[in-house]
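Sat 14:20. Reprocessing the chain from the morning session after the first attempt stalled halfway. Input below, unchanged.
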Amino acid sequence: MPNTLRAFWRTFLFAAVLALPVLNLPAPAQAESALWISVDQAPVRVWRSAQAEVLLRLPRGTVVQPLYAQAPWTRVREPGGQQGWVYQGHLSATPQPPALADIFNAAPESMILAEAADTARSSRSALPVQPKGNEALWAVLDLRTTPEDLDDFLAQGGIGEFARVLPRNQASRASFPTLRPTAPFGGEDERQVGLNLAARVVPRLAKPAFGNALQRYVNLVGLAVARFAPGNAPHFCAVVLDLPDPVSFSLPGGIVMLSTGLLAALDNEAQLACILAHETAHASLGHLWLQARLSQFFRSGGKVDQEGVRSPLFGVMLDDLLATALSKGIDRNLEHQADLAAVEMAYLAGYDPQQLPKAIVRIELAGQAGRGHARQEPPQVWSALHPPTKERLARIQRLLVTLPGHGDLALGTERFRASR
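Finished this time. C-alpha cells:
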C-alpha cells in the first residue's frame, strides 16, 4: 500500500475513534493495592447498584483486592476468589480490625445473671435464666434483625448507598481522628456484665416502652451507625425505656438505653442516629468496661459464671458501674471521644452529622424544662453527665467544618416523627 494511502487510512481511523461516544467504563485499580472492609456484614453485589443482588457478605477487617473503581463503587476480589461490587463507603485504604462480635446478635443463648444465681438450672439447658419482672427487657433483647432487614430500612429511607444522590467525588474523602479502645475486648464476660446491668436498670428505673414497632425502629437506626463504630464493635441492642426524663447511656457489651423523653426531645432520625452513635462509641471504645476491669471483682480473679455472680464484689462492681452511667458520668475526655466518633459514624452511615450539636441542644433544653418535676434519684439531667455544652459544641464543630458533602446526607424527619 502506498505511503500516502496508508497515511490517509491512519488519519481516517484516528478521527473515527475520536468521534465515537465516550463510554463510562470502570478504570482498573492498581493490581498491587489492597482494601479493607470497614463495616460488619458488608454486601458484595453482582453490579454497581444498591438494588443489585447480594452475592455474599464480608465481615469487618476482610482484605479484598480492588479490580476496578467507578465511584461510588469498586469491583473487588474477596479472599475466596469471588468477585463483586462493594460500595466505597464500606471500604478503607487502611487496615481495619477484624470483627470480634456480630452486631446483629444482641442476646446470647444463655445469660448468667446475679438476680437468678440461686435458681436451679441444668448445665445443658439452652434457655436463659430470666428473673421475674424483666420479661419486657428480654422481649426487646430477643428482637432479631438481619443485615437484609437493615438493607430494607436504609433503602426505604434513602440512606447510605441507597441515597438518591450518591457521592461521586472521591478526591475529597473525609478525615477523622484515630480513636483507640481504652480496654481490650471483653468477649462474653463483657456481654454478661452489660446484661446484668440492664437487668438492674429496668426494675430500678423504668420498664421498656410498650410496642415492638418502636423498639425495632430504634434498633435499626442504631445498627445503621453501629456498623461503623471504632475500636471493638460489640453486639448491639437499643432498649427504649418508658421514662419522661431525656436520658441515654451505654452499658458494656453494646447495650444502649434511652428514654421516651429523649425521643420526644429530638426532631429527626439523623439526631437519633447521632445519639445512638455516641452511646455505641462508648461501648466499642470500652469506656465503662475499663472501669469494670479495674474493679476489685476482676482484680481479685473473679469470673462471670454461676459462682462468680454470687460474689459480693460482683454486686459492688455493678452498683459502681450503674452510678457512673446514671449519676456520676464518665471522664470528660472520653465523652469528647464519643462525640467525635458519633460524627464519623453518622457521616459514614449517610446521616447528616450536623444534627449532633442540634440534638445536644434540644436534649439540654428538654432537661431544663423538666427540672421542676425532676426525680430525686438517678438518672441525672443528661447534660449533667457530659462536659459543658459550649465546650462540646466547639469541639464537634471543629470536625464538622472539615467534612465534604454533608448537605446531601439524610435527615429522616418524616419517618422519625411517624415512628416515635
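Residues 12-32, 118-130 have pLDDT under 50 and may be disordered.
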